[in-house]
Structure prediction request, 184 residues.
Amino acid sequence: IIQAKIIAQRNELEAPASTALNRLAESVRSGDPDNHEAQAAKIYWPGMFPERYAAGDKRDPESESLFNAALNYGYAIVRASVARGLVSAGLHPALGVFHHRRDNPFCLADDVMEPLRPLVDRAVKKILAESPSIFDGKLLQGHRRSLLEILDTPLIFGETQGPLMAILPRYIASFYRILVREND
Prediction:
């Protein structure tokens, strides 16, 4: 999961950041004991949003900045879709692999969505490029609509192409097969 997330982040950036992320992805070990995910984040976030970082508006899920609110809104959309897919596959979204907090009813959804987060980041970056003044005011309905369109993002998963919503069941089924140790 962590390796896939770092690879997805790498795909959003250009060299030299993408090269550094590639090296980190290649050396991720089971359970990420060397904390490559955090190392990748230190490269990825300033590389993905250099203007926000230069302005001091860093990624912080607890922040009330509108930049962070847009990211959180997009992540909530993906998280809900993943949770729905997990339940449809017969998995319990609260029983996570890496995420495991008693007060989080979506630990497994949080695990499974990790490689999908850069889709949200790309959408927020596009919103910023098209209307940078959004972050001087409220997250507008049109921006929320743009974030909902993440579910229509075309993806390739194995031999299958389609929007995220069509790919999610296959992605989750693949994850399920790994959990129960079935061959793909």
